[in-house]
Amino acid sequence: MKFGWFDDQNREYVITRPDTPLPWINYLGNEAYFGIISNTAGGYSFYKDARLRRLTRYRYNNAPLDSGGRYIYLRDDRSENQCFWSPTWQPTRNKLDAYECRHGMGYTTIKSSYAGIESSSRYFVPLGEALEIWELTLTNTRQETAELSVFSAVEFCLWDALDDATNFQRNYSIGEVEVVDEVIYHKSEYRERRNHFAYFACSEPLHGFDTQRDDFLGPYRGWDSPLAVERGATNQSIAMGWQPIGVQHVKVTLEPGESKKVLFLLGYQENDEKKKFDPPSSQTINKENVKPVIAHYLKQQTVDDAFLALRHYWDELLGKFQVSTPDSHTNRMVNIWNAYQVMTTFNFSRSTSYFESGVGRGMGFRDSNQDLLGFMHLIPERARERILDLAATQLPTGGAYHQYQPLTKRGNNDIGSNFNDDPLWLVLSVSAYLKETGDWKILESLVPFDNQPGSEQPLYVHLQRSIQYTLDRLGPHGLPLIGRADWNDCLNLNCFSDQPGQSFQITTNKDGKVAESVFIAGLFVLACKEMEEIAKRFGHEDEAATIRESRLTMEDRTNQAGWDGEWFLRAYDSFGEPVGSKDCKEAQIFIEPQGMCVMAGIGIENGNAQKALDSVEKRLACERGIVILNPAFTQYHLHIGEISSYPPGYKENGSIFCHTNPWVMIAETKIGRGDKAHDYYLRINPSVLEDESEIHRTEPYVHAQMISGPEAVKPGEAKNSWLTGTAAWNYVAITQHILGISPTFEGLQISPVFPKEWKGFTALRTFRGTQYSITVERIGPGNQVELILDGNLIPGNVIPLPPAGVKNVNVTAKVN
Ligand code: GLC
Ligand code: GLC
User: Fold this and answer.
1) Which of 422, 489, 564, 573 is catalytic?
2) How many CB atoms lie within 10 A of CB 231?
């Protein structure tokens, strides 16, 4: 069952009923001011850091779902029976006569109709600004004049979202506002150590306002029935402590057929420490900087221009890679939603979504490095900055803080280090950056270790230490030691946790010198291959040869000690016993080493790769994707860790953990099986799963971290949508491996491994400033490529870099 449809032309998903299985959200903002917004206007806003600079409140895990948002109430002032409603459905949830929500690229529009009044609310953040616009359009379709009251409503968060939700003994006494020239300013803690405040302004003269929540709502009432809305009059309350809010009351009279717009602005502003107050001796906010911004954005023309600029920004960004294939699900995801999702993981890593509260995790080291693989071609300059930030949190040992805080860019000491896969991902992201941009200078950039001044070394040295980190930590079989966990955060082989509340990730009760990871072995081989190429081209031939030796040795060991007969083992536990083997009682086969080892090329020559992938198909692949392991653990094992703490079929214990599926797709292309690769691609494609939205539950336009597996109580339920490495890896799998358009050090490579029944496809790809028009024609069932460049056959499958100044290249690839 569907709850909407894809409007590909407009790059929108159109939701046609408000009661989606879960709030289906979108993101507002591009650089510093951000918000999440649901299809019924729920969500919150923040500046840069969702925990430390939260502007508005949201109540996670609440009933009803999705409480707190950008609310508007409409009240029919002529009606006798106190008729009022929410044109975005929440929070009053009146049955609307018509409803439609369009989530687009960086904006959301919710339209509805009730009692003859049509409304459209468009929400977006203008490029380069720290504010959001709510553009409300009201139309009277009645035969008679309508007299309406419009109420806007936000509940302010006292900045630190975690403290705001816990420290009531203090917070009930610190809320402060000013209402000046009809603008509501939220300034809690401004009198002391903060130099920032929020403001809420409206384009129309105010009939009234409220800033103290319970005066507006009335005693024991909720947002669904505010007393002030019910009776049609606010209290002009000035908050002191308790819960500061922003409510504006505007009166609108509409003749039959008439439309009117009302603009609301919610924004964030910082003042110079020395010019916080006006007059300086007072405690009143100095508004000289913010006033012109407010005046500017309360003009309709400014708003129209800003919206066009936003659309133009996305057209340009997404224009960097567009494809046209015979499959509409592929086109839609590559051209629109998957690219949009990778930009979202760039902005938010794993910090803020409907499932990530914004107060928990910072930026993950491995997560961010993998995310980079997806958005590299879209925003290479910002990818560069991200790489340098990440490298600066690397430790002198070559290890890495598992996470860092986006506001301070410092490693997070609470979680620390020793996730032994972490540093290797840096090699992959840097290599992808070099291939995309050709900017070899980045390797000379001086980057500190652990952000310590004086410890700076060229980025290249960071990569060397990443590789060395693995070599310094080998176990009894010569395979890499796993440490706290490898990519699978929940495979905690040294943890042995038996106390509730302990963190599986950072509790370590074994010395860690026995448990080994076959997954890291595969990742190491992959990273070494990239590093060899980098070293060679960067003038370190000898080093390239040494790395090659280490790599070959690791490949050997993986084929020996890491091989179970029909598939790659997952690990050795801290007793030296195999994990993920046919001899295990549970979890006999895991997906991660099959995907990673084959991606790294291990077993391609001796046939292990094909055997491993056949086993994946036989043992792990199911209708909705490939499960992470099988059979799922049915009980908790001290020596296995968190993975066995989850009920069977959920999360890392037997769900379709989507992040890992594209590894298998890529692996399938490595052995030339395009049909299989694309088949797996479609199984987890959210657009394909749109038809079963009532089971899938999360948004049909983005990937989710997991879909519960066949062993779950309720199979097919997705969770943790939006912020997942699935976005980047799927994008890489489909664009670079299945469609086969991938940047290399020498130029753009065209080596598709795609379904046999496709006659071909076309693509437009911007690469190092040149636009490539690519036509792929299938002339036979195989994967051999002949390239025809401007009419001439050229050797190989890499288009050489064109001379400087060439803006367009046309290429045809015949595949046989
Ligand atoms: C989560 C984490 C990621 C980890 C994965 C598997 O998505 O963010 O770092 O690799 O789970 O445990
Ligand atoms: C929890 C989650 C796991 C995630 C980890 C990250 O363990 O279950 O999926 O990777 O947290 O910190």
Assistant:
1) 489
2) 12
- Distance (Å, whole) CA 599 – CA 664: 8
| Least confidently predicted of 153-157, 209-213, 405-409 | 405-409
Q: Containing H/E element for 252?
A: strand 244-254
From the CA of 641, the nearest ligand is 2
Active site residue 214: no
Cα 758–764–765 angle (5° rounding)?
A: 115
Angle at 333 between CA 23 and CA 702, to 5 degrees: 20
CA pair distance 649, 741, nearest whole angstrom: 35
- Spell out the residues 6+ positions from residue 221 whose beta carbon is closer than 8 angstroms to its own: 227
DSSP letter for each residue of 613-659: HHHHHHHTEETTEE-SEESPP-S--TTT-GGGGSPTTBTTBTSEEGG
Ligand 1 centre to CA of 489 (Å) is 6
Dihedral sign, Cα of residue 295, residue 300, residue 305, residue 308: positive
DSSP code, position 182: T
- Beta bridge partner(s), residue 135: 122, 263
Q: Is 490 in the pocket of ligand 2 (CB under 6 A)?
A: yes
> Which atom belonging to ligand 1 lies closest to the Cα atom of 350?
8
- The closest ligand to the CA of 663 turns out to be 1
Distance (angstroms) between ligand 1 centre and the Cα of 371 equals: 12
Buried b / exposed e along 54-79 (16+ C-beta atoms within 10 A): bbbbbebeeeebbbbbbbbbbbbbee
**Residue range 527-532: mean pLDDT, rounded:** 98
Q: Which pLDDT belongs to residue 360?
A: 83
Return the residue whose CA atom lies nearest to atom 12 of ligand 2.
489
Distance, in Å, from the CA atom of 288 to the CA atom of 268, rounded to the nearest integer, reads 14
* Residue 790: band (very low, low, confident or very high) from pLDDT cuts 50, 70, 90: confident
pLDDT above 90 for 361? no
| CA 556 – CA 11 distance, rounded (Å) | 48
Rounded to the nearest 10 degrees, the angle between the axes of helix 365-375 and helix 422-437 is 20
pTM: 0.97
Residue 677 near residue 665, CB atoms below 8 Å: yes
